[in-house]
Every structure is written in structure tokens, then in C-alpha cells.
Amino acid sequence: MKILLTGATGFLGSALLKKLLGKGHEVIILKRSFSDLRRITNEIDLIKSYDVDKVSAENIFLENKKIDIIIHTATCYGRNNETAPQIFQSNTYFPLRLIDAASKNGVKTFINTGTMLPLAKTGQMHDYVLSKRQFIEWGRHYSQTVKFINMKLDYIYGPFDDKTKLLPALIESCVKNIADFNLTKGEQKRDFIYINDVVDAYMSVIDSNTGNFEEFEIGLGHSLSLKEAALKIKELTGSTIRLNFGALPYRKDELMEAKTEISKLLSLGWKAKYDFENGIKNLLKAEYKRM
To answer: Which of 111, 178, 213, 238 has the fewest CB neighbours in a 10 Å radius?
Structure first.
């Protein structure tokens, strides 16, 4: 199949790109002219790429006929102090232009990367979740002409993720035996899922016969507290780090528990291969040559 992929230089997108190429799909990626290509250095010559800050979405479809699927993984969380309009531009307006062009050019399926997070009252996460929800409603609207599938993610982890995120930063600190690492009390629970299992979930959806509008929650189906996760990481790395639980306050509107309902995903034949311990072991082996 011919697949258009956004966010291919990111953590999830790069893993999907490798899998799609391994399955023999023809892949076109959308990136920015200044995107960091380090995650896809071995793949960049095997694909066609467009810089979305230089080429319009409409022209991309004019040059590439009979695209079967769009997989949209590009996102803006607001972590770099982006404004609400900038978050809206990335998470709502940009994919809206894509799905509109898809509708006009015979694309069969649009697979969106959504979130399990609830809408906060204010702040960065409110803007992020709101922009994601707004696009879902546009997806529902366009599902009359393009099959729309929303993949709802909680907490993905794996090798070579952004070290500004909590789990990668914690793992890095444990591996390097940094003296102290400050955390909240760690009572908040997340459904941690390894990147390979997430990629396999996308592949299961690609190969399935779904309705015109579908949503799939992606996880293990059970949650783990941040404190339990941190202590397990310390154990598996053999680190002497001091984990200072309670040194940081919870964020305003902190989500205290997330748990996925994965029965729909299981019905497609998907099954997670990694529990949290084996996922962390695989990460340490891949990124740090440990274990």
C-alpha cells in the first residue's frame, strides 16, 4: 500500500516508519525542513519526503496519486511554551487540511493518533487535549467519505525517546547513577505500553476491516503507579540513585489514574508482547547495551 505518514522523525512515527518499510509498504513522509533526522538516518533514502513548511498539503496529493492510508502521528504538546494558536495549528488545523485533501483525492483511511487524557480546566494540557478533541469531531464529520480511526494512547515508552519526558529522564538518571531524582508522591497511575506493542496495534488496525469511524484504546488494560514504575526501573538498572518521592507537587488537574479498555483491540487479534518489566529490559538493552 501507499501510505502517507506524518511525524516520521518523532519517537512513535520513526518506529512506525521502520515497521511499514519492513512490511513492504511505499511510504511518503511529511516533515519540517529543520526536522532532526537522527532516528531515520537509515530510512531517509528509501522514502519520499516533503517539507510541510515549504509545500502545501494540496500539492503533495497532486504529485502522489492513489494514496491508500494516512497515518497522522505528528503532535504538539505545548512543552516548549507554544501558544494556544500554535497548538491548534499543529493538532487541529494541519490534520484538518490533510483529511480534507484526503477526502478530495480518494484516500481510503485516515489513522489519527489521539490521547486518553481528559480535558483539564486550564493550562498547557487543556490546550493540547482540546485541540485533539476538536480534530476528532472533524474526523467524525469526514468519516462519511474517509474511514477515520482514532488511536487513543496513554503512556508509550521505549528506547531513544525524548529525554525531557519523565520516564526517559528517570531511566537516564538511573543508568548514570545521578545522586538524586525528585518526583511527586508517585500515586498517579498510568497504563505504560512498550513502543513495539503500540506499533503492532497500528499494524493490526491497518490490516483490519473496521467501520467508518472507530476508536481504539491502546495499552495493557491495567495501570501501574508512577512510584511502582520508578522503583522497578531503579531495581532493573541496579542504580544507587535516591528517588525523592514527594519532593515535587502534583500538577494542577493531575490525572490520578488512567486505564485502557482494550477489548476492541484484542478482537483484531492484537496482543501485547511486553509487560512493564520486560519492556524496560528491552529498552535498556537497545539504548544502553544493558541487561
So the answer is: 238
Distance CA 201, CA 216 (A): 9
Residue 140 lies in a domain: yes
Hey, how many other C-beta atoms are within 10 angstroms of the C-beta on 98?
24
SS (H, E, C) 59-121: HHHHHCCCCCEEEECCCCCCCCCCCHHHHHHHHHHHHHHHHHHHHHCCCCEEEEEEECCCCCC
The pLDDT of residue 291: 60
pLDDT value at residue 118: 87
Domain CATH number, residue 112: 3.40.50.720
Residue of 50, 128, 157, 194 marked active site: 128
pTM > 0.90: yes
128 among known catalytic residues = yes
Contact (CB, 8 A) for 276 and 232:
yes
How would you classify the pairing of strands 213-218 and 180-183? unpaired
